[in-house]
Amino acid sequence: MSSNKNVEVGDKISFMSGIQGIVEKINDNSVIVQVTKNNTEHVFEGNKTVVAHKNYEII
């Protein structure tokens, strides 16, 4: 998994300009995230979402 930016389970990430979350699972092309902060209009069912490796930054 060379495209995973060295992310680990438990890391905090930021994505979509205002959403933050904690990585729960790492997949080949994405991560599953528990959303902890959402400053957007987006609603996530169960407060979880999938984010591609290219679409987040580790904070």
Your description of this structure?
It comes from Virgibacillus halodenitrificans. This is DUF2187 domain-containing protein. Pfam families: DUF2187. This protein is mainly β and 59 residues long. It has one domain. Helix content is 0%, strand content 49%. It is built from no helices and five strands. It has strands spanning 12-15, 19-26, 30-38, 48-52, 56-58. Strands 4-3-2-1-5 form a five-stranded antiparallel beta sheet, with no helix packed on it. Strand 2 (19-26) and strand 3 form a beta hairpin. The model has no long low-confidence stretch (mean pLDDT 91).
Main sheet properties: 5 strands, antiparallel
Report the total helices.
0
In terms of DSSP E residues, the strand content is over 45%
Tally the beta strands: 5
Helix content: under 10%
Structural class: mainly beta
Protein name: DUF2187 domain-containing protein
InterPro entries: DUF2187
